[in-house]
């Protein structure tokens, strides 16, 4: 029964002792004894040793080769070749045994014996094994170069036939035949070895292949050389024996590597394992050696054919090497071209830009894999389709014109901006660079390199919008200042009139309406500034119901007459801590989206209700933990929201609207507002059934606002002297009257210059400086700083109608200075003055106590 196949493993099995090293030691002793012929001194034992010493090495090589051939994953050709080489070494072993028997029995070594029959049989088996090894496809000039190699070896073969006949003309019969056949068979073996070397596949590995084929080729070269040397009568040391021992040992290692090395899949289609076959050169060198030997021995009759043979052989080798250089150059050029192609392919494959090749009919012939990421389309779907199918309708005519013009200019370039359709239905903006490469055989079309600039365009638009809003804010700040001055006068005057009118007077109602209108005007001014200028959030406890009612009028103006706003507010729904301006912005964004979802008109429901949940409300946007909430909902009956759109709704810059209709920042702002308010967002939607957004705010108890009756408008009386500085005459008169009505003595100045004069005269009696912030010539802050140099600790109350950032540039930060914003009521001004003076009195008292 055959042994189990040898397993394939990249790691050799662990051994305590490798018998190959014993073979090395034995072979070294045997080779030494043969070269120096020391066995002659050993008598009969030496004779037995010299003729039987080869047998264990040859049998061990036979066993190793047969064992390697049983490896299951080797190709059939390799396994068959290994069996063939094993048969060769077995023939050697049998021949050695026969020769040993004859030599020991006769105590002599005859020239040819029955052992030569097995040696002759080994040659064709060895040739077949070399040809059974797998070979790669033929290379350019490979067959011609191989033919030259075979021609060179055949030339050597003819030379050997001739020289052997000349040198051993006295030999007859079997001796003459074998003396000629041996080198001829050796040359035939070299032809087979040359074929294996020039086209061999390194299976299982390059080192196993090189060692096996190289050792067999070396054996054949040495065989031919020593057969020729013996034909000339050479009687020196038999150097072929140690060479044969080395070849046997190399075969052992090669067989072991064939059994153990992992299978290599090296591509031999262009680069051979051995750069060139050394066999013809070795043979030429050997011929030169024979020529030298013949010349030394005086055998001049064969020198002429040897010279002719060497000349012809060198001509063949020169032609062969020229072809080798030609092949190497062609292979290097091909490798360079393929490397460039692979580099180009890698660049195109990993490019984040879209690369398209369009033919003369403007059909897509090639598209890079980036189309899947940029437009959601597979390469197969886009290839072969018209390029115009991806373009926005408004861009098709202009792009077609650019392409037509470019196709008439080989080598020309152009740049265009286009909109391409994403598979999800959105239009993406691209900057395209076009190059007409129709004259390039590998392209033959227009190459379009397109870069997605959608996000960049949105950012640029946001920047332009921010710059516009900055300009609007600056304008609004100036208008607000003047408007607040007017409202300050209206508020103060209306309150003075209400103080003087008796109860039940017919004009009290009108004056009350004027006061309320002025207060609403002040709120409107603040709202306009909040739209035009960024500001930090100012969260406070806000009753949601009244806040929604206040915003409803603005929302109705936003949605227009074609849509109806239905407001449903639950009584005592509760309050929440938030910024009321942010709440208003969120409602405006949600209602604007609801309006756009119903282009043909419809009803938008704005509702407020209280809710309590015991389980978390999961949301893909902002979840809600258990608790009590106030829910503000905006619902429409429009087209609904698709699932792929719903997942991206609150992402910055994502929008399904055209660029001129939306920026993609509205809902992102709503999400940020709800996070700041510690709330949650829920969405209910279905195709064709509209959408309902719910804003969940943690519920608080509302703060009760005390309504001040008209009779309580007059403040309590105070004491003190103050310097009032205000450049607006109407506002200054109203402010002076309020302060005088509060019991204060007032010195008034229309500007900083007069204020300095008055302060110089009344410095000792002035208890408080009340000054406008922004005035012609000098700011109120600079004026206050100058007065405090002369009177340290002078309390200052700033009044202003400008927005906060204008004051911040002057170093006046809210919370760090006493600031009263216009417009203000009588009570607000008097109460603030009383607070400032009272705080100053406490500070003075504490200072005296410390002294």
Give structural notes:
The structure is a single chain. This protein is 55% helix and 13% strand. With 851 residues, it is of the alpha/beta class. Mean pLDDT is 76; it is low at 1-14 and 658-664. The longest helix is centred in the middle third of the chain and has 48 residues, at 303-350. The chain has 25 helices and 17 strands. Helix 23 links the parallel strand 15 and strand 16 (796-800).
Compile the SSE list and pairings:
Blueprint: H1 19-35, H2 44-52, H3 54-69, H4 76-106, H5 115-132, H6 142-167, H7 173-199, H8 206-231, H9 240-260, H10 279-297, H11 303-350, E1 354-358, E2 364-367, H12 370-375, H13 379-382, H14 393-407, E3 413-421, E4 427-436, E5 446-452, H15 454-500, H16 508-532, E6 540-543, H17 544-559, E7 563-569, E8 575-578, H18 580-596, E9 602-613, E10 627-635, H19 643-646, H20 666-676, E11 680-685, E12 691-698, E13 721-725, H21 729-741, E14 745-749, H22 752-762, E15 768-772, H23 780-790, E16 796-800, H24 804-808, E17 819-821, H25 826-850
Parallel strand pairs: 7-9, 13-14, 13-15, 15-16, 16-17
Antiparallel strand pairs: 1-2, 1-5, 3-4, 4-5, 6-8, 9-10, 10-12, 11-12
Helix pairs in contact: 1-9, 2-4, 3-4, 3-9, 4-5, 5-7, 6-7, 6-10, 6-11, 7-8, 8-9, 8-10, 10-11, 15-16, 15-21, 17-18, 18-20
Helix content: 40-55%
N- to C-terminal distance: 120 Å
The gross shape turns out to be elongated
Main β sheet profile = 5 strands, antiparallel
Quickly give the structural class. alpha/beta
Strand order of the largest sheet: 2-1-5-4-3
Task: Tell me the radius of gyration.
Answer: 53 Å
Beta strand %: 5-15%
Total number of beta strands: 17
Average pLDDT metric: 76
List low-pLDDT spans: 1-14, 658-664
Tally of helical segments: 25
């Amino acid at each position: 029964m055959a042994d189990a196949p040898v397993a394939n493993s990249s790691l050799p099995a662990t051994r305590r002792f490798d018998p190959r090293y014993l073979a090395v030691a034995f072979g070294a002793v045997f080779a030494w004894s043969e070269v120096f012929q020391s066995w002659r001194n050993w008598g009969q034992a030496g004779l037995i040793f010299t003729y039987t010493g080869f047998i264990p090495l040859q049998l061990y090589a036979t066993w190793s080769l047969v064992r390697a051939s049983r490896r299951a994953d080797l190709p059939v050709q390799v396994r068959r070749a290994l069996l063939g080489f094993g048969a060769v070494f077995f023939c050697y072993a049998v021949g050695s045994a026969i020769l040993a028997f004859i030599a020991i029995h006769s105590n002599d070594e005859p020239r040819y014996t029955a052992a030569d029959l097995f040696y002759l049989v080994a040659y064709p088996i060895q040739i077949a094994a070399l040809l059974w090894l797998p070979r790669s496809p033929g290379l350019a000039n490979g067959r011609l170069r191989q033919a030259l190699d075979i021609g060179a070896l055949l030339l050597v073969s003819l030379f050997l036939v001739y020289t052997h006949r000349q040198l051993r003309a006295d030999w007859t019969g079997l001796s003459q035949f074998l003396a000629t056949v041996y080198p001829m068979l050796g040359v035939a073996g070299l032809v087979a070895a040359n074929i294996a070397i020039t086209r061999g596949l390194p299976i299982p590995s390059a080192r196993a292949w090189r060692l096996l084929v190289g050792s067999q080729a070396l054996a054949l070269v040495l065989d031919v050389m020593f057969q020729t040397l013996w034909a000339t009568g050479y009687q020196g040391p038999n150097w072929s024996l140690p060479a044969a021992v080395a070849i046997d040992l190399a075969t052992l290692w090669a067989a072991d590597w064939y059994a153990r090395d992992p299978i290599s899949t090296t591509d031999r289609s262009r680069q051979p394992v051995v750069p060139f076959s050394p066999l013809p050169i070795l043979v030429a060198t050997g011929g030169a050696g024979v020529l030298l030997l013949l010349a030394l021995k005086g055998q001049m009759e064969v020198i002429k054919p040897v010279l002719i043979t060497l000349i012809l052989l060198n001509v063949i080798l020169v032609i062969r090497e020229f072809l080798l250089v030609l092949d190497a150059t062609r292979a290097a050029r091909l490798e360079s071209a393929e490397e460039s192609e692979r580099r180009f392919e890698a660049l195109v494959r990993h490019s984040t830009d879209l690369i398209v090749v369009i033919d003369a009919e403007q059909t897509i012939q090639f598209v890079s894999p980036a189309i899947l990421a940029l437009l959601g389309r597979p390469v197969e779907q886009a290839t072969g389709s018209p390029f115009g199918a991806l373009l926005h309708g408004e861009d098709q005519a202009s792009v077609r014109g650019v392409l037509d013009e470019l196709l008439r200019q080989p080598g020309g370039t152009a740049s265009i901006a286009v909109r391409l359709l994403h598979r999800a239905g959105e239009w993406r903006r691209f900057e395209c660079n076009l190059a007409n490469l129709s004259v390039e055989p590998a392209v033959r079309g227009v190459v379009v390199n397109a870069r997605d600039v959608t996000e960049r365009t949105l950012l640029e638009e946001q920047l332009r919008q921010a710059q516009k809003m900055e300009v609007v804010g600056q304008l609004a700040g100036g208008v607000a200042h003047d408007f607040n001055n007017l409202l300050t006068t209206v508020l103060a005057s209306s309150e003075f009139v209400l103080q003087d009118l008796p109860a039940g007077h017919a004009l009290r109602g009108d004056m009350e309406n004027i006061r309320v209108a002025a207060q609403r005007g002040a709120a409107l001014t603040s709202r306009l500034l909040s739209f035009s200028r960024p500001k930090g959030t100012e969260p406070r406890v806000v009753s949601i119901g009244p806040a929604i009612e206040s915003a409803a009028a603005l929302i109705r103006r936003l949605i227009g007459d074609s849509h109806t706003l239905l407001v449903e507010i639950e009584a005592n729904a509760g309050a929440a801590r938030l910024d009321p301006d942010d709440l208003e912005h969120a409602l405006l964004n949600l209602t604007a989206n609801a309006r756009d979802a119903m282009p043909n008109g419809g009803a938008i429901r704005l509702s407020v209700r209280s809710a309590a949940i015991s389980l978390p409300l999961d949301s893909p946007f902002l979840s809600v933990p258990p608790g009590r909430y106030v829910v503000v909902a905006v619902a429409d009956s429009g087209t609904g929201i698709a699932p792929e759109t719903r997942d991206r709704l609150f992402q910055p810059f994502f929008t399904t609207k055209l660029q001129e209709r939306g920026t993609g920042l509205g809902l992102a702002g709503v999400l940020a507002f709800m996070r700041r308010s510690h709330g949650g967002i829920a969405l209910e939607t279905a195709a064709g059934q509209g959408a309902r957004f719910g804003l969940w705010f943690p519920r608080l108890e509302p703060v009760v606002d005390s309504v001040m009756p008209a009779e309580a408008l007059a403040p309590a009386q105070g004491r003190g002297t103050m310097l009032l500085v205000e450049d607006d005459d109407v506002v200054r008169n109203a402010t002076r009257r309020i302060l005088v009505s509060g019991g204060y003595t007032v010195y008034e100045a229309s500007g900083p210059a007069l204020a300095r004069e008055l302060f110089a005269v009344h410095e000792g009696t002035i208890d408080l400086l009340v000054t406008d912030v922004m005035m012609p010539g000098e700011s109120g802050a600079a004026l206050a700083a100058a007065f405090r140099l002369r009177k340290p600790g002078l309390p200052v109350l700033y009044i202003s109608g400008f927005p906060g950032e204008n004051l911040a540039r002057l170093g006046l930060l809210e919370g760090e200075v006493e600031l009263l914003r216009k417009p203000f009521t009588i009570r607000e001004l008097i109460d603030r003055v009383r607070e400032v003076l009272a705080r100053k009195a406490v500070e003075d008292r504490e200072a005296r106590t410390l002294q």
